[in-house]
Design a protein that fits this description.
It is built from four helices and 16 strands. It has 233 residues and is α+β, with helices and mostly antiparallel strands. It is elongated and about 80 Å long.
């Protein structure tokens, strides 16, 4: 049995192996069978063979298209096939505000000092947290609420019209950051974003256009550690 499928160019795939999954309640095991084509009738399965590590590794590599290993720069904290996490030190970034209530219109398009931050992209979702110290975090580093609109309690960014990459490669990091800052901050999804006594608007109003470090004492510390954030806990 042969299958032809177009994936940018023509490939010819042949049925070579079959995996049979046996289940009983929550337990299961898998057998591997070679497949033999027949002149007439359906293909036949060979005797059951146990799965080997090399077979699973070869299968995973073929499913990924033979992906090339990436060199990880110092800012990358964790990386898997479907997830990447990195950190950024304090810096200056332009921010855009669009709010129906007009609370932050006077801040739109100005440049602001940013806190050190942790970023995580997994399955198309972007999550961010702030860091209270300007240093590369480790697994036990406690995180803080990122003081931005458009975020949920778990740090998930409401993507809205944000332009976001399709991949989680090292090369996509810059595009994720650019998409976040170039999209408009439109609304608050959570009650409290900062310890500043004047709240969100007053915090960013004081920082607008100022060449200074973001005030770490304005951040709301969380019990969540970096390892828990990366693992989705």
């Amino acid at each position: 049995m042969k299958v032809e499928i177009s994936i940018g160019e023509m490939h010819r795939f042949e049925l070579r192996d079959a995996l049979l999954i046996y289940r009983e309640n929550r337990r299961s095991f898998i057998t591997w069978h070679t497949v033999t084509a027949q002149q007439q009738g359906p293909p036949s399965l060979g005797p059951a063979q146990p799965l080997t590590t090399s077979f699973v590794e070869d299968l995973a590599e073929s499913l990924s298209g033979g992906a090339v290993a990436e060199l990880l720069p110092e800012n990358v904290l964790a990386k898997s096939d479907r997830m990447i996490a990195w950190w950024t030190p304090p810096r200056m970034r332009r921010m855009f505000f669009e709010n129906a209530e007009g609370k932050a219109q006077q801040l739109n398009g100005k440049v602001f000092p940013q806190p050190a931050m942790v970023w995580k992209v997994a399955q198309g979702d972007l999550k961010i947290r702030a860091l209270c110290e300007n240093r590369r975090p480790n697994a036990k580093t406690t995180l803080a609420v990122a003081p931005f609109w458009n975020l949920s309690d778990d740090g998930r960014v409401c993507l809205g019209s944000m332009r976001s990459p399709d991949s989680v490669s090292v090369a996509s990091i810059g595009a994720w950051e650019q998409g976040f800052y170039e999209s408009a901050f439109t609304h608050a999804n959570v009650g409290r974003l900062t310890r500043h006594e004047g709240g969100h608007d007053a915090l960013w109003g004081e920082l607008a256009g100022k060449r200074r470090l973001f005030p770490a004492n304005a951040l709301i510390r969380l019990p969540q550690k970096l390892a828990e954030f990366i693992q989705g806990r």
